Amino acid sequence: MNGCHFGRFFQVTVAGGSYQEGLQAVIQSVPPGLLIAEKEIYGDLLLRKPGADELSSPRKEPDLPIIYTGLNCGDTIEGANNKLHTNGTPLTILIPNLDRHDIHVKQYQDTNRTPRPGHASYASFVKYGPDDDAIGAGIFSGRYTCTIVAAGYIAKKILKKCGIEIFSYIRELAGVRYSGENIEMAKKQADQFKIMRKDYDPFYQEIYEKQRIKDDMRFLTKLKIFAEIENEIDEIRAKTPKFEKKDIIKKYGIHPVVNCPDVDTAEKMNEAVNKITETGDSSGGIVEVVATGVPAGLGEPVFHKLDADLGTMLGIGAVKGIEIGAGFKVKDMTGIQTNDQIRSKNGKVYFESNQAGGITGGLSTGQEIVVKLAVKPTPTIAKKQVTIDKYTLENKELSAITRRDPTIVARIWPVAENYTAMILLDNLLMHFGYQKLKELIGK
C-alpha cells in the first residue's frame, strides 16, 4: 500500500485501521525544542470523533493519543528544562482503538459479503482480494482521518510560531449556506467552538484535566490506564455535562453543534439536516478553510503548485470537489471581475479583492488562502438499497442501517484544517530553504 505517505520536507506516514489495534502517524521534520502535550493533540482529535453530538454516529471511540517517539524522556543535562521537548527525531503518535469488541467484528462479518453503495468496500475487495481489511472498512474508514488531525495539529503548532494561523468552519450544510465574509469574526467563532467542545468533552475533562494520564508517564503505564478506560467508556461518556442551547449561545456566542460563524444560520443548518435524517437519508455540504499570515511565494511551478497541493485534500474520504477562492464561479465571471487588482500603500502591497483565494500561478500572494471542500452525504443511510454479493455476484438488497452519521460535514472541517496545515508547512520548509540559498548566492 503506497498511498499512506505525505510530503517532501514535512513527511507523514500513517498506518492502521478502524478495527486493527489502532492507528498511528509517524512525522518527520519536526524541529527540536517544541513542547507538545497529548492533551493538546486530543483537543483537536475530539473535534472529529463520532458520538460527540446529534450530527454524528453513536460510535464511541475516544481517540486518545499517545506520543511514542520523538520526545526527550528527561532533561538532557541537569537543569536543561528540555524534558518532553521534541528532539528532532521522528515523532510517532499512536491512537489505540479503545472501542473494539468482538460483537462489532461479528456485525461486520455478517454484512461484509454485500458492499454498501457509496463506500470503498467493493473496489477495495477487487484490489486486495479476500484478505482486504473489511472489518470496519479498515484504512478506508473515516476513522483513519484521526491520523491526519494528529499530524496536522503538530504542523499547525509549528506554523503558528511562524505567524501562520489556520481555521475552518462549515460554509454550507444540507442546502443552507452562510453568506458572511468577515474572516476575523469567523476565526473568533471557530476558536470559541473549540473551547466549548473541550469544556463539554467528558474525556478531555476526566482524562486530561484531572491528570489521569500525564505526559511524563511511561508508555506501558499509559497502556494500563487505557485498558481501564476502555471498560469505562460508557461511564465516562455519561459524565458529559448537560447544557441548554441558549446557555451555550450566551456563554460562548456560538451554536453548540454546528461550527458556523453565524448562530442563526447554524441553527437553520441543524434543522435542515435533522429534517433529512428523519426520512432515513443523509446530508452533504461545504467546508471552508482559511489560512492567514502566509508569506508570498509559497509553492512550486507546474506539478507542485500550491493550489494543486491543496487539491490533494481530495484524499479525505467523502470530499468530492475542491475550490480555491472563487472556484467554479469563475466560469460566470469576466476578466475584470476575476482579476485581483494590486495597489501599494505605505510601502506594502495589497489587493483590492481575493477571487484567486490567495494563490496565483501556483504561488501564494500573501493574502488569506481560502479553500472550499465539497463533502458528499454520508453513504450509510437508513434506506433500503440494492447491491451484490461480492463473492457470488448475486444481486442482493441491503437493509436500512441506523447506526450512522446524519452528515459527515461536521466531522470533516477539523480534518481539512489540519491537512491544510501539513501542506502549508511542507511548502514553507521548502520556501525557507530556497530563500536562504538565494540570499547566500546573492552575497
Description:
With 443 residues, the protein is an alpha+beta fold. The protein has a single domain (5-441), classed as Chorismate synthase, AroC fold (4-Layer Sandwich), CATH 3.60.150. The chain is 34% helix and 17% strand. The protein is built from 13 helices and 16 strands. The chain has helices at residues 38-45, 102-111, 121-128, 145-161, 183-199, 202-209, 219-230, 233-237, 245-252, 263-277, 306-310, 335-338, 409-441, and strands spanning 5-6, 11-16, 22-28, 66-69, 91-96, 165-173, 176-177, 285-292, 319-324, 342-345, 348-351, 359-360, 363-364, 369-375, 385-388, 395-398. Strands 1-2-3-5-4 form a 5-stranded antiparallel β-sheet, sandwiched between helices. Strands 7-6-8-14-9 form a 5-stranded antiparallel β-sheet. Strands 10-11 form a two-stranded antiparallel ribbon. Helix 1 crosses helix 4 and helix 4 crosses helix 13 (409-441). The model has no long low-confidence stretch (mean pLDDT 92).
Q: Roughly how many Å apart are the termini?
A: 46 Å
Uncertain segments are: none
Please give the order of strands in the largest beta sheet: 1-2-3-5-4
Main sheet: strands, sense, barrel: 5 strands, antiparallel
Molecular shape = globular
The CATH homologous superfamily is called Chorismate synthase AroC
CATH architecture: 4-Layer Sandwich
Helix share bin? 25-40%
What is the domain tally? 1
CATH fold naming: Chorismate synthase, AroC fold
- The helix tally amounts to 13
* Helix/sheet category: alpha+beta
Total strands: 16
Overall CATH class: Alpha Beta
Radius of gyration: 23 Å
The residue-averaged pLDDT reads: 92
Give the DSSP E fraction (strand runs of 2 or more residues). Answer: 15-25%
N to C succession of SSEs: EEEHEEHHHEEHHHHHHEHEHEEEEEEEH
